[in-house]
Model the fold of this input.
Amino acid sequence: MWVMVESATTDQELVKISGRGALVNISVDDGAPLNLACKTLRDRLARDRQLYSHGEVVVDIGKRILSDDDQGRIRKVIEAESGLTIKEFWCDPTVLVRERERISDLMDLHSNVPEQINGREVMANAGPAAADSDITGDDASVAGDTPSTTRQSVSADIVRGTCRAGEVLKFSGNVVVVGNVNPGAQIIAQGDILVFGALRGTAHAGAGGDSTAVILAMSSAAPQLRIGDFLEDEDALDRIAGRRRDDFEGKPIIARVQNRAVRVSPYLRNHSIDHGGNPNER
Amino acid sequence: MSGKTIVMTSGKGGVGKTTATANVGTALALRSNRVVVIDTDIGLRNLDVVMGLENRIVYDLVDVVEERCRIEQALIRDKHAGELYLVAAAQTRDKDCITAEQLVDLCRRLELDFDYVIVDCPAGIEQGFRNAIAAAQEALVVTTPEVSAIRDADRVIGLLHASDIHTAKLIINRIKPEMVRQGDMLDSSDVLDMLAVDAIGLVPSDDRVITSTNNGTPVVYDTQSPSGREFVRIAARIDGEYLPMIDPVEEQPTSIMDKVRTLMGINRKTSAHV
Done:
């Protein structure tokens, strides 16, 4: 026995809320600017608060790619305006193809990409950027939120110069290092790490737990690469321990998670970066 | 007269900071500069021993900063090298008994009277290191072609940058040409590539350094010593002379080629000698 609750207002196009037993499904329209979608969602939940006093909810974000911050905004709205607990976020698998293109665009430095990269010099020990925006504010929608573009653009911090021993550089998103990362330096990013130089220090991509993140480097002798909650397996670490890793003879490498361990392989031109399935299932 | 203060540092201990300070200081003085070397390794002093001046110490660095004597009283004049003076470290105190401001003040006063003030930095990156780099306008970073020394040099170069010293120059010490040729030791170009700084000297490993240290006579006096000759060239480079870098690894096998070059008028080695 289940009850279907369908919206009859014009908000219908932006946010759909349906319920089945104790499981509620919220789907957000692909074209809706995130601010508007959040506002609509909040109004809807507030209006029918008694309907959503308890239970689990699955949020379908469709073809959208949400940053951790944006995901947090939706989570905040749902937790503030209802008694629902979020079971999972779900997205359309086809967006993962676009993720691939996004990486190869960054590698090729396609002519219009640099303008979209929000570059800044980053000092050592920089903390994660505070991103606690007010959903009722009329801030212009961020890049990637614009309905008309067919491709999501992403931003990345850019670090120029050598990262030296003892420096710890932290980023809340993606990072591009134009220079070497020396032994004893640490790069920690919640997103991807791309090094246009030799990666000889420690790198941790997907530091918020995102195991779909990748590490790319022009060459790597890094003692340890971490992605999400994973390391390389024991065999690989034993092989590297105490020696310089030059498995790939100074050629570009890509590291990603496969079978619950970080795998390093040569990065080839037109390499397909397999982000592998629904990231929310990891 | 307004001289400059140069700090000799490395991070790691035992790579040759003190030896380099004594030799570069002596070589600069032999080029008719007025030079003072300051040992800031308080509690573990040994620059005085390397220079053979141990028995002349009456007042030391701590006596100066605590105003128990005038600066002139703590300046120990070298036996041989003309206008070369040493300010010795105190042996019975520790690094925390002077402050960076006190050392900056001392160096500013010495700069008025000397061409070069060379500060011999203690190992490590703690208070002693922070004191030593505070006064310096330039830095010489000493390393050996070993991964541990290079890592520490890298850290130190980063800390120097953070203290607004962007002109660090590298001395790669104890290069063993034979090991480099066999691939058992890092090549100096590998080291420079990783540290991303310019070299000011590539010093070959040389047993004569041990003898000269024990005798208290810097190795620059020994004209037969390959390391002594390189320290002389380093001093010349500091003094603003342009001398091409000579990699000890290439020096020996190409000696015949060098003779040919000399005959052809490309007089690389002769011009490099001071």
User: Anything to note?
Assistant: Helices of chain A lie at 34-47, 68-81, 95-108, 113-116, 234-240. Chain A has two domains: 10-90, 95-281. The first helix of chain A runs from residue 34 to 47. The domain at 10-90 of chain A is CATH 3.30.750 (Transcription Regulator spoIIAA).
